Amino acid sequence: MADSIMSKAATMEIPINSNGDTGTLPEDDSLEQAAKLQWSLDEKVGRSTGHQDLQQVMVSGPNLNETSIVSGGYGGTTEGIIPTSSIKGPAVRYNPGFNRPIPVTGIGSSMQHSSSNSSMADDASRGVAVEKLDFVKKWGLNTYKCTKQMISERFGRGSRTVDLELEAQIDVLRDTKRKYENVLRLARALTNHFYSMVQTQHALGDTFADLSQKSPELRDEFGYNAETQKLLCKNGETLLGAVNFFVSSINTLVNKTMEDTLMTIKMYESARLEFDAYRADLEELSLGPRDAVTMARIDYAQQQYQVHKDKYERLRSDVTIKLKFLEENKVKVMHKQLLLFHNAISAYFAGNQQQLEQTLKQFNIKLKPPGSEQPSWLEEP
Hints:
The chain is mainly alpha-helical.
């Protein structure tokens, strides 16, 4: 209402004479009322504006260390500086078109959350990179020391730890494995050749049986030979079952049991090389000066030496135990398999079909009936 009255008073025409002096204005009650109303508003605004502006700044002002606030009404100004460092609360934004502040805390919290997530991801990736770098560093240092020790041993410059009894047993095992591999190779060759002979006897018996039907004058002779070949073929299949069982058992002994023990031996030899490498490193450091840096290196080398010594002794004990059990298992398996092979071969070439079948029953060998084998994918419809 005051604004409409002031705008009305400001737009009224004021007559001016030719000398620039204002003329005599007629008395206007509305202008006088407007002046009185404006004077009363000035006093009220001057008293209350300072308190209202301070309250508005505390609610909607920016969160700075200090803020310059200008307060005053129409026709008067009052300026002061109010510290705002003690004002706490969520960040707000004041919209001039409305008389209430608008909180903006969501933007700041989301930015802080995203920045914290990115910093955590950076820390995690940095930790993984450092861990990989440490692993590569340790691996490279260990490889260098082991290679140096290996070259020194081959050129006769370095000493190596030797267990004479264990080394002798390892050499015997490797020699035994080579000989058993030769037995396995020959047994497989015998199986293949004998299988071919059995197939030939089977085809020959079928041919004799066919000729006995087509040659009346030689029917009896072809018939005797056909039955003989069929009997030999049947006994040959029985012998093949025994020989295949022998080959399978030897293959398990050589390529699984012995190979497992040899893998443990390889780990033992690698641990022995590492142990000698760190032992030589410790001895070399012990012969040097004894300053602070060298003493720290000696302590670290002593720790590594103890770690690799424990590993070497543990694997040496594992190898000793496995060699003992391997020898016992080898004797048991070979005793059974050699007896099977001898009885089956003797019964077959003696023509004793009953003894041959009894040998298979003794060793729990079950033959597959003819035609029980599944056809290959080439024969499937």
